[in-house]
Amino acid sequence: MPIRVAALYRFASFPDPAALKPGLLATCLEQGVNGTLLLAGEGINGTIAGSDDGIAAVIDHIRTFPGCAGLEVRESRAATPPFHRMKVRVKREIVTMGVASVDPVAGAGAYVLPADWNALIADPDTIVIDTRNDYEVGIGTFEGAVDPATASFREFPDWVRANRDRLEGKRIAMFCTGGIRCEKATALVSAEGFDDVHHLKGGILNYLETVPESESLWRGECFVFDERVAVTHGLAGGTHALCRACRMPVSAADRASPLYREGIACPACHDRRDDAQRAGYAERARQAALAEVRGERHVGASYPLRGDDLP
Fold first, then answer.
1. Rounded CA separation 99/307 (Å)
2. What does the pLDDT look like over 22-61, one tens digit per residue?
3. Which of 176, 182, 222, 266 is catalytic?
4. How many other C-beta atoms can be found within 10 angstroms of the C-beta atom of residue 35?
5. Which domains does the chain have, with CATH numbers?
6. Segment 78-129, tens digit of pLDDT
7. What is the side-by-side order of every strand in the sheet holding 197-200?
8. Is 182 one of the catalytic residues?
């Protein structure tokens, strides 16, 4: 597969993130790299794809940013380009929590390597918290993990404050898909006065890639923000697909439901769209099918990433 896909994030202090945008965008365009990168005062986050040399050049450029020399990148391969254009955006946060006082650079919890994670979460004095959104938790999570049932990461601070008594006196271990949300979540919890706070280094993806299935405490599949939709142990492809209408994962059982219409509706959204919206989805699905017959890829069929959930 000729396309190199790089998912990255780094919490770092950028005094003027807007000043970093022109050079970063120019480097991406010069190298033929597409995707989305977010810049904020707290660092950088995003996913890009391109040739091996192109991605290497962009990563080298990012490593010149303040605090980014040690940038870690999670890479995968793709047969066809997953993105059709390059976007570099300056935002208030690289992962949206909505609490301006949280500082992941100075206040994040302790990293836990995947090899040490099982022992930590098996300890009865540890409370394990899944910091992802409810639709992600719904298809898989760690054995015994608490589900805050949040629809977005913005709801997580309120959940922490409402559950303060539940957290008191406990060792707190948090996790997310690739590490970014749980790292910021540990900074929030630390700022709330808890001092025994930990998070899974590299997130669920690092765990599934490195811990043997026979030793794993993961149950189900892990939702991912690319065309794979979900992965299992060894990062093998899962069984879930994506509803192109609501962008929710749909299981094999969902797809067998009479409420499921590929590209148009699923059991989760069939009653939440009007006729005009469904007609638009149907036309998009038709155009994508025609493009496939021609051996082309329809732009509307590409993965619709959620704004605050970039990996």
1. 17
2. 999 999 999 999 999 999 999 999 999 999 999 999 999 9
3. 176
4. 25
5. 3-90 (3.30.70.100), 104-220 (3.40.250.10), 242-301 (no CATH)
6. 888 888 899 999 999 999 999 988 999 999 999 999 999 999 999 999 999 9
7. 110-112, 197-200, 171-175, 126-130
8. no
